[in-house]
């Protein structure tokens, strides 16, 4: 009797197409060797490497267009020992990069990854350049700058400018990844959302995905492997609230609407372990200008809260400034500078290039600026007077260096209202250095790879601008190569 019931249930499932995700479907709609889920930096690199290793490859992307956060990012790639550094007289090496990165959140960033990324960062940069990215050999943006906390650790390991900013920002950067895919004529399918991973019950191997295209459920078979390159979860407020301590306090988010943690959820269902899920990178940004990303220059400004008080060294870089701003009244801050700073050439290529003009508030006096922002004038004027004193003496009680101190004296004065927003999540799937997704016993889940922001434990504390794209490129290439080397399932 039970057997009969089971049989009727199976027949019903086949007739209605209601196959549970982890079961094998009655029929596959599409077949490939390596299925790459997500068309950003990591997906493009993985697909290219798998193709070069001889595999048939398909990339699926849930949005109608490719790019993900890669296309919206600042366009920095972090690398050491590069030709551009050499041309500008910097004697940087992978060992120095490794020594620096090892100082950022040790324990949460796994040492074997820091070593591998440092050793291969120049290769990643050269791969991106070979695919069409342009980076001028000069200091600045585009060009090279310090990327994060390098100056803070200068006594331990020499500070080197490793952030290589591509011409055209994220758009220019993603174009190179897109070129890599299109010149290989790799198959792609837009508006195709992977929903669940499919596992072969006999071998326990991941053999494809259940996806949605044009509101229809389809089954895609991956003979060799599935590579998850779906990005992080910075656009998923529910996941941020569940995992990240600041999750509830954000007033918005930056980046692509596609990065909502799909890859993490799919892999969790098949037993994947997670790492450092509480870690996010916040950046000072602007509500209403989701892609405004504060690049170098912030350190030259004066930052106050809405009580007109200074609360952190502006040279502390975007992540600590954002974290501290979240603790300020209404979680907001104001970046203040004067006509002299505004006239510096770096302004136009850094902050000035990302802040839409309507968010740049101008006033003929500091009093007027305080009124425009609704900041108590008396407190604000005292803060500026004290700050100008520190600029004169070169000694700042909050620890800003002499090179970053510029007195605010020349009208007009400028200000930008800013809120910390999540830029990326640095926790995610636990993988090994071969980009295999690991289960909670640290064993690889057969047939499943992951690369880029969907993975965790490599960029915690965000060592500097460009480290995410470097990581996505290196592990995308590794994932693609290893996925293509898998023995075909059937
Ligand atoms: C404003 C901003 C500035 C930044 N600046 C920099 C910088 O200068 N340098 C740097 O290194 N990093 C920067 N970052 C971080 C960096 O952009 C990302 O970490 C990196 O680009 C991630 O690459 P990825 O390939 O892993 O994911 P993404 O480029 O985000 O691509 C993931 C893709 O997967 C798709 N996808 C998701 N779920 C599914 C699904 N279920 N099915 C199919 N497709 C799916 C998404 O739609 C998306 O297109 C910045 C981020 C932001 C938001």
Automatic annotation (TrEMBL):
Its EC number is 1.3.5.4. It is an enzyme of class 1 (oxidoreductase). GO terms for molecular function: oxidoreductase activity. The keyword Oxidoreductase applies. Keywords: FAD, Flavoprotein, Oxidoreductase. The keyword Flavoprotein applies. SUPFAM superfamilies: FAD/NAD(P)-binding domain (SSF51905), Succinate dehydrogenase/fumarate reductase flavoprotein, catalytic domain (SSF56425). Residues 33-468 form the FAD-dependent oxidoreductase 2 FAD-binding domain. This is Fumarate reductase flavoprotein subunit. Pfam families: FAD_binding_2. One of its GO terms (biological process) is steroid metabolic process. Its cofactor is FAD. Transmembrane segments: none annotated. InterPro entries: FAD-dep_OxRdtase_2_FAD-bd, FAD-oxidoreductase_2, FAD/NAD-bd_sf, Succ_DH/fumarate_Rdtase_cat_sf.
